């Protein structure tokens, strides 16, 4: 962008260019915002992204289906299990795999934990950016607890690579169940404490109300989904509109805002965490018995004893590891409600061992393009609050 | 709190009715249609993309006002129709989705832009240009978005190698595409 000449009513002659990013602590990720400033007011903005572009769509065209799960981890790394399960349900849709209720409920529990961990990061970081550091410290401990649950289920913490096509690699263990129960007991207290610090806090309200505002019409035209769209008053949620993984079995509501500003986004995310807790509680109470894997020998590794003693099991083991399973032809679009919005997978298969084309619909990438328009006319400090309120994750932005 | 959209599953638009409507409007320019996994997919000539999307947007009984996704696809096996653009549209009110596909020859990779209907198409079209070299005519700011500006190739085209092809330690003859 180039300097813009200013009118006589400004004390400046022309605008100042400020680079917010690529490595600025307030961007919480690697992307650049070039701001044209009249004093402290933004008159123009442009964004540069792609600093951590890793060509996942190209890599995916050269990887067997089970090897794509680790790629999805690195999209929105604050809630990687949702991406993993979104990919698994996409492949299941293509293969026509029916998963058991136990698998569905376990997935729901994990996805909602991931949603909580994503929202709590976003909301507490918004606190940090408005000058309230303590809320962040209170909630960070809970994220650690969620990561410990992940660790108990799959062994990893951040990039989880959790589950397999058709279910899980192993059943959930009693320690994980105990940790989830403890979390369900403890988290409401922490969250209420956090809400008491923020929700009616005068300073926080002054910093966020009417900041980064977008109307529902504009948000829809810009392709907003998820909490950012719901903050504008549109109750669109993939979990309800097109239930996957047995979401229709649970009783929960979709919080919506009305103003579409940073404060409403914050409130919607907070309310969503309460709803997620409700869902986890229901899923845990009604967790059905049964297999933790669907009956898909193309994807589920046979037990080790059988591999050593049984010819057929050995063949399947080899086929799965080398990614030589038979894939049906077809094209499928499947979406899940990611923490930031509709996370879609458009998969085209030509019958080869790898996808012919795989496109990720990344909610961050789509709504971040509205950012220059949203911040035009606001102050630099408001631009930073808007950025944290939108929850832009660089990994998802760049794919 | 206000509810702008009252979703009603029973209200979902019927695929055959949508197709009939579009066929009576556009006739032979709709080449082919199918319904993989229940999602109505229409193959159309690229000249009518803009008219069709505008019609789907405005017509009261259709109302596909949300562009969910836009992406490119490259299939070298389709001679003279190698490059394609795939649009996923959505009517949130009735919870209906539709997919529109259009293909063109690699020698003439031009498509009309839909940025004046959907603002969200701006970056999606830039991404498609960046990776497939598809030129969206009328786009306000068609430049690379994720790759560096001085790149000359279009990396998601099938002929573009994933890794450095001079390496001898990587043998993909047995396993791998």
Indicate the overall shape of chain A.
globular
Oligomer type: heterodimer
CATH uppermost class of chain A: Mainly Alpha
Structural class designation of chain A: mainly alpha
Using the 3D structure, state the CATH architecture of chain A.
Answer: Orthogonal Bundle
Radius of gyration of chain A, Cα only, in angstroms? 22 Å
* Number of contiguous helices of chain B: 3
- Topology of chain B as a string of helices (H) and strands (E): HEEHEEEEHE
Describe the fold and architecture.
The complex is a heterodimer of chains A (399) and B (177). Chain A has one domain (56-398): Cytochrome-c3 Hydrogenase, chain B, CATH 1.10.645. Helices cover 48% and strands 10% of the residues of chain A. Chain A has helices spanning 56-60, 69-73, 80-95, 101-129, 134-154, 174-198, 202-208, 216-221, 227-230, 238-241, 262-285, 304-309, 311-322, 363-368, 371-375, 380-390, 394-398; strands at residues 16-20, 32-38, 41-48, 330-337, 342-349, 357-361. In chain A, the strands form 2 sheets. Chain A has a 3-stranded antiparallel sheet. The longest helix of chain A has 29 residues, at 101-129. Chain A starts with 15 loop residues before the first strand and ends with a helix. The model of chain A has no long low-confidence stretch (mean pLDDT 91). Chain B has helices at 15-26, 49-58, 121-132, and strands at 30-34, 40-44, 66-74, 83-91, 96-104, 110-112, 135-137. Chain B has one domain (9-137): NADH:ubiquinone oxidoreductase Nqo5 subunit (Beta Polymerase, domain 2), CATH 3.30.460. With 177 residues, chain B is an alpha/beta fold. In chain B, helix 3 (121-132) links the parallel strand 6 and strand 7. The N and C termini of chain B lie far apart (53 Å). The model of chain B is unreliable at 1-7 (pLDDT under 50). The chains are: A mainly alpha (399), B alpha/beta (177). The interface between A and B is large, with 53 and 45 residues.
């Amino acid at each position: 962008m180039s300097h813009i000449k200013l009118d006589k009513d400004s004390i400046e002659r022309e605008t100042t260019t400020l680079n917010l990013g690529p490595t600025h602590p307030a961007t919480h990720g690697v992307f650049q915002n070039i701001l044209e400033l009249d004093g402290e007011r933004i008159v123009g903005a442009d964004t540069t992204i792609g600093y951590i572009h890793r060509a996942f769509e190209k890599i995916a065209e050269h990887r067997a289906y089970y090897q794509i799960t680790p790629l999805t981890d690195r999209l929105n790394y604050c809630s990687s299990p949702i991406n993993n399960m979104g990919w698994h349900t996409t492949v299941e849709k293509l293969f026509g795999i029916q998963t058991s209720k136990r698998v569905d409920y376990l997935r729901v529990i994990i996805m909602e934990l991931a949603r909580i961990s994503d929202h709590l990061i976003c909301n507490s970081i918004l606190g940090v950016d408005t000058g309230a550091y303590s809320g962040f410290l209170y909630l960070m401990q809970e994220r650690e607890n969620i990561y410990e649950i992940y660790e108990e289920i799959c062994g990893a913490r951040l990039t989880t690579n959790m589950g397999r096509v058709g279910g899980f690699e192993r059943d959930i263990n009693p320690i994980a169940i105990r940790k989830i129960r403890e979390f369900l007991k403890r988290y409401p207290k922490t969250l209420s404490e956090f809400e008491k610090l923020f929700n009616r806090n005068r300073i926080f309200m002054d910093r966020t109300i009417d900041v980064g505002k977008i109307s529902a019409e504009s948000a829809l035209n810009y392709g907003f989904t998820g909490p950012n769209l719901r903050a504008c008053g549109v109750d669109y949620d993939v979990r309800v509109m097109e239930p996957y993984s047995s979401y229709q079995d649970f009783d929960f509501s979709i919080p919506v805002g009305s103003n579409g500003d940073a404060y409403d986004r914050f409130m919607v995310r907070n309310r969503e965490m309460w709803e997620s807790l409700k869902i986890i509680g229901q899923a845990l109470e009604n967790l059905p018995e049964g297999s933790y894997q669907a009956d898909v020998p193309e994807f589920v590794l046979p037990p080790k004893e059988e591999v050593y003693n049984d010819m057929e099991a050995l063949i399947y083991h080899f086929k799965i590891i080398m990614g030589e399973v038979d894939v049906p032809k077809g094209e499928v679009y499947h979406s899940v409600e990611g923490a930031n919005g509709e996370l879609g997978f458009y998969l085209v298969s030509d019958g080869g061992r790898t996808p012919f084309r795989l496109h990720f619909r990344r909610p961050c990438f789509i709504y971040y393009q509205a950012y220059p328009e949203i911040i035009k006319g606001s102050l630099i400090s408001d631009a930073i609050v808007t950025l944290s309120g939108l929850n832009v994750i660089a990994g998802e932005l760049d794919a | 709190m206000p509810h702008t959209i009252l979703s009603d599953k029973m209200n979902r638009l019927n695929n055959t009715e949508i197709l009939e409507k579009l066929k009576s409007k556009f006739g032979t320019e709709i080449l082919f249609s199918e319904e993989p996994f229940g999602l109505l997919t229409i193959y159309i000539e690229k000249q009518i993309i803009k008219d069709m999307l505008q019609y789907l947007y405005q017509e009261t009984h259709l109302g596909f006002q949300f562009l969910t996704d836009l992406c490119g696809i490259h299939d070298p096996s389709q001679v003279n129709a190698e490059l394609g653009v795939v649009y996923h549209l959505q009517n949130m009110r009735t919870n209906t989705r539709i997919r529109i596909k259009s293909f063109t020859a690699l020698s003439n990779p031009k498509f009309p832009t839909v940025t004046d209907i959907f603002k969200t198409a701006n970056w999606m079209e830039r991404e498609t240009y960046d990776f497939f070299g598809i030129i969206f005519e009328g786009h306000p700011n068609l430049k690379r978005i994720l790759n560096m500006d001085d790149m000359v190739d279009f990396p998601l085209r099938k002929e573009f190698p994933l890794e450095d092809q001079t390496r001898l330690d990587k043998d993909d003859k047995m396993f791998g595409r």
